[in-house]
From TrEMBL:
A Pfam family that the UniProt record links to this protein: E1-E2_ATPase
Keyword list, A-Z: ATP-binding, Membrane, Nucleotide-binding, Translocase, Transmembrane, Transmembrane helix
Transmembrane region(s): 51-74, 80-99, 247-266, 272-301, 688-708, 720-740, 761-780, 792-810, 831-849, 861-878
Protein name, per record: HAD-IC family P-type ATPase
UniProt key word Glycosyltransferase: no
PANTHER family membership: P-TYPE ATPASE, SODIUM/POTASSIUM-TRANSPORTING ATPASE SUBUNIT ALPHA
Domain Cation-transporting P-type ATPase N-terminal: 5-79
Superkingdom of source: Bacteria
Membrane topology listed for this record: Multi-pass membrane protein
PROSITE patterns named among the record's database cross-references: ATPASE_E1_E2
Keyword RNA-binding applies: no
Stored NCBIfam families: ATPase_P-type
InterPro entries assigned to the protein according to its UniProt record, in alphabetical order: ATPase_P-typ_cation-transptr_C, ATPase_P-typ_cation-transptr_N, ATPase_P-typ_cyto_dom_N, ATPase_P-typ_P_site, ATPase_P-typ_TM_dom_sf, ATPase_P-typ_transduc_dom_A_sf, ATPase_P-type_domA, Cation_transp_ATPase_P-type
Organism the protein comes from: Aromatoleum bremense
Length: 888
């Protein structure tokens, strides 16, 4: 069946075609039946890169190519065992990398999908929030600013609807939507009567009928063509790749040099070639790329467990360098559980009792409950009518659906004897101007006995300038007392209350909300003050951030007084500190803003658009900025910040799309936890590198020194491969599971420009490499001089090498502190890995097949004693080095 040209049909025709009443939506039974037919609204899993392509990619890494060449040449030379093992190792390495990378990729994709998308649909006449996967063709969906369009839709109605369609058309400027039917040949980008799945609503509101879901949507059809892959590269990995390239050139140069020197000394071509191979094979850290990916993947999974979902992998590293967190107040630092405590109207102050969302409690004046609250009526009424929240009583619990600020007003009205359900039916709503952080107020238009009345609620500073009169005690209009109102609002704000003003305007019967102007025609009704207590975990998290050298800045749309009071409770600021308001901020030029951004920690009445300037000013000061946001207008600042953080519960899809990290609990404490994990992950990468390089450097040096001194090789190329493969997997990788060290949040943030290995670690790597060289070379020579065979001497050399790696692994569990202050039993894997490694070494030494392949031979107890002693000494030396370094 050809697809109908939906955009060319009238909205009514589309509804008829899809058998739905646009005013009621589908019934649940019909929706369920259609879900059976069309399937869930999600693109079926797109094919990733083919397994074969991924496997081949593993082989085409420069370090691996060297091994392949070495394997092929040894084959040509007829060294079957050598070539077999070398090529075997190449395959094992590729298979391990292939599997681990595949797992990491799948885990990241799964996380990206875990951020569930919801949609508001009309079902059987009721608005319902549902999982976007439940939508079916014919569903009537309501779109508002910030939403990601959940399916392809023909628009039915809308107001100032603007969409960002870059995901589909590549065009980044938002396009306006209209409802009129278009010519059938209109191209996709110009179909203004349609909304396409995956595009973003950046302004206005609208409704539409779903015409296609899942794979049948335009984006579904495209995304099936493009393979989905998670980007697994980060700045650190790019740095490491560049390092690997340089390392390779150096190793090849050194191998060639060894070969030439050996030949000049008259050694055989074959021996020298094998020595050059041994050197390259030894010095190449084959395990490094896989270890990086795995450490990052484990870290990302750990963060997800702590409720921070990483959307962009580089954020994991940047988190560890964060120096400033700019956080919203409401819901992130505070509970977002609002309770009205005070009302001021007609010059009188009323106190509200009760707590939470339960409507038990009363409104009191001078300690006495107010019964017939005529004076309060208009303020309460405005709060109820200009309201999109619902109060529900379920399982003996009161709960609100919608914005807590609005929910608190419904509870308040009930305490004053007004019931929102009755009131909304008496005063039907004709139109609305939804709340928006930039506008800072909300307005609704109501019908009342032939007249029309607008109720408004919002920030005092926004509504008050538009008021010429206010209500007195008897609810009569009198000239507005600006000073009295401001004094009352400042008093409430300074007590930490969130302040909201109510106003109304009676308008002509032909007036609509589009024409509403706040210019002196409003009647001021009253103000309410509600508490929103700080989250206890946020208080602790702010303290931890401060000890970790991270500044916390509150950036809020709320009143400066409220912001300061809450910031003081959270200990973000001390008593003497000052706040900067959005208006003051607007007057600062860029350089003055840089100074202010450095000095001030509370920014109040800030419009979302100003957050972008603030992030830029902080970045110009050299800060690494994490910034939270939830609305559409926050998206530019989230993109600009080094780490944009979106709210998983209260945030819009637009903000989530722009963010590098999403908090599934909207809690500030989660940001602090993610930073701790970020620092831990980076530490683990550095620990792995510090552990692995001495092995490679030590092995390279063993070969080099042997050739330069004309000695037989203490370790053969095959044995080197054995050491590298078995220890990287059994020992090195266990460091990826190390928990963050206890003192990690008492350190200052890491500078992003700092090299991966500092001078202290470079020195340690050199020290351990030399110890490995000395121990293996020394014991090899010692055994030979005692008349042992070359096989026995080599077996001793390999064993001492591996045992030092084991003890050094325990050294590396903490790079600065003593080994016991590292992960301890919190990470059992180093212990498990060490036991397995020792078992493997016993096999390597005593089992005949191994002896055959690797040219090893059983060794005596005495030799083991010597090996253990040397390994223990190396452990002690490194621990002493740490102590000594701590005094640098
Ligand atoms: P943050 O940016 O920290 O989340 P916030 O939630 O207090 O702070 P906004 O939601 O932008 O910031 O609110 C700013 C102001 O707008 C509030 O101080 C209040 O006066 C007003 N306001 C908040 N919610 C509503 C609402 N639902 N209806 C009308 N006005 C509101």
């Amino acid at each position: 069946m050809p697809r109908p040209s939906w955009h060319a049909m009238k909205a009514g025709e589309v509804a008829g075609y899809l058998r739905v009443d646009p005013a009621r939506g589908l019934d649940e039974a019909e929706a369920a039946a259609r879900l059976e037919i069309y399937g869930p609204n999600r693109p079926s899993a797109a094919p990733g890169r083919s397994a074969f392509a991924r496997f081949v990619a593993q082989l085409f890494q420069p370090l691996v190519l060297v091994l392949i060449v070495a394997g092929l040449v040894t084959t040509l030379l007829g060294e079957w065992v050598e070539s077999g093992v070398i090529l075997g190792v190449v395959l094992i390495n590729a298979a391990a990398g292939f599997m681990q990378e595949g797992k990491a990729e799948a885990a990241l994709l799964a996380l990206a999908r875990a951020i569930a998308s919801e949609a508001t649909a009309l079902r059987a006449g009721m608005r319902r929030r549902l999982d976007a996967t439940e939508l079916v063709p014919g569903d009537v969906v309501i779109l508002s600013a910030g939403d990601k369009v959940p399916a392809d839709m023909r628009l039915l109605g809308g107001k100032e609807l603007r969409m960002a369609e870059a995901a589909l058309t590549g065009e980044s400027t938002p396009v306006e939507k209209h409802l009129a039917a278009l010519a059938p040949d209109t191209v996709l980008a110009d179909r203004s009567s349609m909304a396409y799945c995956g595009t973003l609503v950046v302004g206005g509101q609208g409704t539409g009928i779903v015409i296609a879901t899942g794979d049948n949507t335009e984006t579904g059809r495209i995304s099936r063509l493009i393979a989905q892959t998670a980007d697994l590269t980060t700045p650190l990995m790019r740095k490491m790749n560049a390092f690997a390239q340089r390392l390779l050139i150096a190793i090849l140069a050194l191998a060639t040099l060894t070969f030439v020197i050996g030949m000049l000394r008259g050694e055989s071509f074959f021996d020298m070639f094998m020595a050059a191979v041994a050197l390259s094979v030894g010095a190449i850290p084959e395990g490094l790329p896989a270890a990086l990916t795995i450490t990052l993947a484990i870290g990302v999974a750990r963060m997800a467990k702590r409720r921070a979902i990483i959307r962009k992998l580089p954020a994991v590293e940047t988190l560890g360098s964060t120096t400033v967190i700019c956080s919203d107040k409401t819901g992130t630092l505070t509970e977002n559980a609002m309770t009205v405590r005070e009302i001021w109207t007609g010059g009188e102050t009323f106190v509200v009792t009760g707590s939470g969302y339960s409507p038990t409690g009363s409104i009191e004046e001078g300690g006495e409950p107010v019964d017939e609250a005529t004076i309060l009526r208009e303020t309460l009424l405005a709060g109820v009518l200009c309201n999109d929240a619902r109060l529900v009583h379920e399982e003996r619990q009161w709960r609100i659906v919608g914005d807590p600020t609005e929910g608190a007003l419904l509870v308040l009205a009930r305490k004053g004897g007004l019931d929102e359900v009755t009131l909304t039916s008496i005063f039907p709503r004709l139109d609305e101007l939804p709340f928006d952080s930039s506008r800072q107020y909300m307005a609704t238009l109501h019908e009342l006995e032939g007249a029309r009345i607008i109720y408004l609620k919002g920030a005092v500073e926004k509504l008050l300038p538009g008021c010429s009169s206010m209500l007195d005690r008897q609810s009569r209009e009198m000239p507005v007392d600006v000073a009295g109102i401001l004094a009352a609002s400042v008093r409430m704000a300074e007590a930490g209350l969130r302040v909201l003003a109510m106003a109304r305007s009676v308008v002509g019967a032909d007036q609509s909300l589009d024409q509403v102007r706040i210019d002196g025609n409003l009647v001021f009704l009253g103000i309410v003050g509600m508490i929103d207590p700080p989250r206890p975990r946020a208080i602790a998290a702010v303290r931890t951030c401060h000890t970790a050298g991270i500044r916390v800045k509150m950036i809020t749309g709320d009143h400066p007084g409220t912001a300061m009071a809450i910031a003081r409770q959270l200990k973000i600021i001390d008593d003497g500190a000052k706040a900067l308001s959005g208006r003051e901020l607007a007057e600062l030029d860029d350089s003055a803003l840089r100074t202010a951004a450095a000095e001030v920690d509370v920014f109040a009445r800030v419009e979302p658009e100003q957050k972008l300037r603030l992030v830029r000013a902080l970045q110009a000061n050299g800060e690494v900025v994490a910034m939270t946001g939830d609305g559409v207008n926050d998206a530019p600042a989230l993109k600009q910040a080094d780490i944009g953080i979106a709210m998983g519960l209260g945030g819009t899809d637009v903000a989530k799309e722009a963010a590098a990290m999403v908090l599934t609990d909207d809690n500030f404490a989660t940001i602090e936890a993610a930073i701790e994990e970020g620092r831990g992950i980076y530490d683990n990468v550095v620990k792995f590198i510090t552990w692995t390089i001495p092995t490679n450097a030590g092995e390279g040096m063993v070969i080099l020194v042997a050739i330069l001194t004309g000695s037989p090789l203490p370790i053969t190329p095959l044995q080197i491969l054995w050491i590298n493969m078995s220890t990287a997997i059994l020992l090195g990788l266990t460091l990826a599971f190390e928990p963050a060290e206890a003192h990690i949040m008492r350190r200052p943030p890491r500078s992003p420009a700092a090299p991966i290995l500092d001078r202290k670690l470079l020195w340690r790597i050199l020290l351990v490499s030399l110890m490995m060289l000395g121990a293996s070379f020394g014991l090899f020579k010692f055994a030979l001089s005692n008349g042992q065979s070359a096989e026995v001497a080599r077996t001793i050399a390999v064993n001492v090498f591996v045992m030092i790696e084991i003890t050094y692994l325990f050294n590396c569990r903490s790079l600065q502190r003593s080994a016991w202050q590292g992960g301890g039993w919190g990470n059992p894997w180093p212990w498990v890995g060490s036991v397995l490694m020792i078992a493997l070494q016993l096999a390597f030494t005593y089992i005949p097949v191994f002896n055959e392949i690797f040219q090893t031979a059983p060794i005596d107890m005495q030799d083991w004693g010597l090996i253990a002693l040397i390994a223990f000494c190396s452990f002690v030396v490194v621990e002493m080095d740490k102590r000594w370094q701590s005094r640098w």
